[in-house]
Write a structure and sequence with these properties.
Layout lengths: L4 H6 L3 E3 L4 E6 L10 E7 L2 E7 H7 L5 E8 L10 H11 L5 E4 L4 E6 L3 H16 L8
Antiparallel strand pairs: 1-5, 2-4, 2-5, 3-4, 5-7, 6-7
Organism: Caballeronia temeraria
Protein name: Acetyltransferase
Length: 139
């Protein structure tokens, strides 16, 4: 696991996952199956699900947000400080919204579906810029 911020950014290797994903909210007592589900999170208002768009459509689930899914393939430490801020800032400067899920091994970024390729380009630019920093040029 990597916790050093410069090393994390320089080695994050963003990878665009195939397909379209949606965020949706279901009642707490909804019966959800594993088909197409990427993530769930229980909130006071309901069960948030992130799932493949086709599976949501088949199940009659209304999407709240259509997204492209980008995985940072670096094995980041859950205690690492600053990675989310760094890529969120870069995406924000490019006017791309992002929704982030940190899992046990990788960070997963969901951006508007039409911005997927552009977001990967922005993240790779950030990665390249971090890789160019020499130890003597770091603050």
């Amino acid at each position: 696991m990597i916790s050093d911020l410069d090393t994390l950014i320089a080695s994050m290797q963003p990878e665009l996952q195939p397909g379209v994903y949606v965020f949706a909210s279901l009642p707490h007592d909804a019966m959800v199956t594993g088909a197409g589900i990427v993530a769930t999170f229980r909130e006071h208002e309901g069960l948030t699900v992130v799932m493949e768009e086709d599976a949501a459509r088949t199940a009659g689930i209304a999407p709240l947000f259509r997204a492209a899914w980008i995985t940072l393939t670096v094995h980041s430490d859950l205690n690492a400080v600053g990675l989310t801020a760094a890529f969120a800032r870069a995406l924000g400067e490019a006017n791309i919204s992002c929704n982030v899920i940190a899992a046990a091994y990788h960070d997963h970024i969901f951006v508007p579906v039409e911005e997927g390729a552009h977001a990967v380009h922005v993240l790779r630019d950030l990665q390249r810029s971090a890789g160019k920093l020499s130890p003597s040029s770091k603050p």
